[in-house]
Amino acid sequence: MFRFDNYLTLSSEFLPSVQRVWRHRIVDTSMFAVTRKLNALKPVFRAQRQKKGDLANNVKLASTFLNSVQDLLAQDKKCSLLLLHLEFCCKMILRLATRLEQNMLLQRAKIAWMKGGDQGSRIFFRKVAKHRSSKKVFQITNSGGQVLTEQQDVISEFVAYYQNLLGGDRRDRVIDLCYLRPWARHILSKAEVLSLVQPVTPGEIKHAVFDIDEVKAPGPDGYSSGFFKAAWPIVGEEVTRAIVEFFRTGRLLKQVNTTLISLIPKVATPTVVAEFRPISCCNVLYKIITKILVQRMRGVLDKLISPSQNAFVPGRPIGDNILLAQELFHGYNQQHLPPRCALKVDLRKAYDTVEWDFLRAVLTLFGFPAQFISWIDECVTTPAFSVCLNGSSHGFFRGARGLRQGYPMSPFLFVFIMQVLTLILHQFIDQDGKFSYHWRCGEVQLFQLGFADDLLLFSKADSSSIHIFKWGLTVFADLSGLHVNPHKRHLILSRSATAQRDTLLPILGYQEGHLPLRYLGLPLLASRLSIADCKPILWKLDDRIKGWDGVMLSFAGRVQLIKSVLTALQVYWAMAFILPKTVIREIEKRLRSFLWKGCNGVGYAKVSWQ
Q1: Distance between the two ends of the chain, CA-based, in angstroms?
Q2: What is the DSSP string of 392-404?
Q3: Residue 72 and residue 91: Cα distance in Å, rounded?
Q4: pLDDT digits (tens, 9 = 90+) for 140-152
C-alpha cells in the first residue's frame, strides 16, 4: 500500500514535482481531477523515497563523516579554513538527515503530544516498534471456538466479521419521530437553518485542511494532511473547487469515500475479532468535507442536546457528569436515606450498529434542513470498506449501517442519536405518571447522565420506574439498532433498597452492581475517597513510566513527558476528588524519581547548597 511520508515535503524536489503533475488539465469533475493527479504523484513520491534511502543509515554516515572531519581539525594546529568550511557543511548535512528521520518517526509512531522531542531519541524507535507489534495478528479464535493460525484463514475471519457487522442488507424504513417534538429542548430556527446551508467559502475549506493533524493515519489513497498543507499554494485552488463541487451537487466520488478499517486491540492479548476496535481511516478530501459539516453543527449542539449529555458538546466538561454522578451516589451505603437505584448501561457495538434510516429521522426531528441532511446522508451512506491487517489491505465491501469510528462527524451524529433516547424516556415518564425520581432529582427532573454510549439512569427503587427504563431502552433499540451490551449492564441499589433486589433484578435481567463503580475512568463512591481507592492512579503512573524503560531520554525530554502525560492523570482525578495528601506525596515521589533518575533508577548525587 502507498503511504506518503511527511518528510518528503522537506525536500527541494517536492514542490517542483507536485507542480509538474498538477499543471496537467483533466476534463472531468474537479473531484475526479484531484484524485487522478494524486494517483499520478504516487510513483513520483515512491521514487523520491527510494532515492532518500535508509534515513537511519544516512544519519549514521553523516555523523561518522562529521566525526572524521572534527578529528582532522583537532590534529590541524593551523585550523585550515577548508576544514572549518567542511565541518560546517557536515553539520548542515547531519542536521537535515536527523530532521528527515525524526519527521518520519514522528509520523509512524503517531506521537501527537511530542512535537519537539529529543532528536535521535530511541523513544521514536520504541514507539514505532510498539505500534507495529500491537497491530500484528498471527492467530484468532473463530465463533466456533477453533483457533485459526493460517494467515489466509485469519484474514477471512476478520473480513467476514466486519462484512457481517457493517455490510449486509440495508433497512429502508420510513421512520417519523416528530411525535417527540413536545419533549425536544429546541428545534432549529430559520436563522440557524440558513447558517447550516450557506455557501461554503475558500477560507472555510483551508481552515478545515490545516486543522487535520499530520500524524493522523491516512486513508486508502495514502495521503496525509501534511501533503496538502505543504503543497497548498499549488493544489489549494483545485482542491477548493472539488469541495465546493460536493456542496453544490451533493454527490461524492466513490473512491473518495473508501475506508480502511484499522484494528486497535481493546485488551492486552485479544483472542477473538470482537476484542479489536475498528477505527476507520478516511481520505483527507472526505475529512475536509466532514470537518466543515461538523463546524457548522457545533453552533447548534448546545441548544439541541440536553444538559445531561456532556460528550462532544462545546463548553460542557467531562467533569460535570463525574461530579454529579458522585453526588448522587453519595450515601448509597446508608440505611436511613430513601431507597434509590441506578442503572449503568453500555451499548453493544454502538457506533457500528446505527441504522441509517433512523439517523435521517433524528436529523429531521431536530429541524435540520433537507439539503444539510442530504450532505450528511451522502457522507454516511456511501462508504466501501477494506480491512487493514498486518500491513496489507484485504476485502472490499459496501457499508449498510453504522457510523465510522475515527472520522470527525461520527461523535456529533451519535450525540443526536442518544438525545432521542432521552426524549423517549421523557415521553414515557410524562405519559405513564408512575415514575418516581431519584432522591434529590425531582425538582430538576434528572433521570439520566450520558457521555456518548456510557449511560447512567437514576430513579427511586420501585418496579414502576424500572419498567419505564426497560420500555424506553427496548423502543430505542428497535428504532436505532443500538442494543444494551448484556455483559456490561448493572443495577446498583442503595443500602435502603436491598429489600427490593429480588423484585427489580428479574424485571431487567441485569447483574447487580456494587460501589465503587468505574465511570469515565474514575471510581464512583458512596463515601469519601480513601487511599485504597487511589491505587489505580499509582498503578497507571507506574505502567506509563515502565513503558519508557530502555528509552534514552534527556532531562528536557523527561520534563516534557511529565508535563504532557503523567501530570494529566493527576489533574483528571483531582477534577473530581480531593486527593489524600499521602497519595499526592506518592505521585510527586514517582514524578521526581522519573525526572532525576529516569526509568533505570540511576540518578545524580545530591549536592548540599551550603
Answers
A1: 63
A2: EEEEEEE--S---
A3: 15
A4: 999 889 999 999 9
Summarised one tens digit per residue, pLDDT across range 246-286 is 999 999 999 999 999 999 898 888 999 999 999 999 999 99
Angstrom distance (rounded) from CA 440 to CA 116 = 50
Q: Judge whether 276 and 392 are in contact, CB under 8 Å.
A: no
DSSP-H helix ranges across 211-317 = 225-230, 232-249, 284-304
All three cell numbers of 9: 515535503
Rounded to whole angstroms, how far apart are CA atoms 552 and 549? 9
Residue with C-alpha cell 477548493?
A: 240
Length of the chain: 610
List the one residue out of 289, 302, 295, 292 whose CA is nearest residue 188. 302
Calpha distance 572→318 (Å, rounded): 10
Q: Identify any residues that bridge with 519 across adjacent strands, giving them in sequence order.
A: 522
CA atoms within 13 A on the CB side of 439: 17
What gap in Å lies between CA 44 and CA 51, rounded to an integer? 11
Q: Are 66 and 87 in contact (CB under 8 A)?
A: yes
- Interstrand relation of 511-513 and 484-493 (parallel, antiparallel or unpaired): parallel
> Which pTM value belongs to this model?
0.87
Give bridge partners of residue 280 from the DSSP assignment.
Answer: 261
DSSP E strand stretches across 425-577: 448-451, 454-460, 484-493, 511-513, 517-519, 522-524
The residue with cell 500491537 is 134
Omega before residue 339 within 30° of 0, cis: no
Integer-rounded Cα Rg, in Å, for the chain is 28
Helices 535-547, 567-574: crossing angle, 10 deg rounding: 160
Nearest to 248 by CA among 28, 413, 27, 29: 29
DSSP 309: B
Own/partner contacts of 322-328, CB < 8 Å, gap of 24 or more, are 322/519, 322/520, 322/522, 322/575, 322/576, 323/576, 324/449, 325/449, 325/456, 325/519, 325/524, 326/524, 326/525, 326/576, 328/438, 328/440, 328/441, 328/458
* Grid coordinates belonging to 83: 576544514
C-alpha 491, offset from chain centre: 29
For residues 276 and 249, is the Cβ–Cβ distance under 8 A? Answer: no
Distance of alpha carbon 22 from alpha carbon 16, whole angstroms: 10
Beta bridge partners of 140: 148
Query: Rounded mean pLDDT of the chain?
Result: 89
As a CATH number, domain 305-355+402-527 is 3.30.70
Average pLDDT, 10 consecutive residues per value, the chain (610 residues)? 86 93 92 96 90 75 83 77 84 82 66 48 52 71 91 93 87 88 92 96 96 89 94 97 96 94 89 92 96 95 92 89 94 94 93 94 96 97 93 92 90 96 96 93 94 94 97 96 93 95 94 93 92 93 79 75 88 92 94 82 62
Task: Report d(CA 131, CA 112) in Å as an integer.
Answer: 13
Q: What is the residue type of 523?
A: P
Q: Are strands 147-148 and 340-347 parallel, antiparallel or unpaired?
A: unpaired
Q: Which pLDDT belongs to residue 491?
A: 97
Residue-range domain boundaries for the chain: 6-127, 305-355+402-527, 532-597
Distance CA 534, CA 582 (A): 10
Rounded to whole angstroms, the Cα distance separating 523 from 536 reads: 9
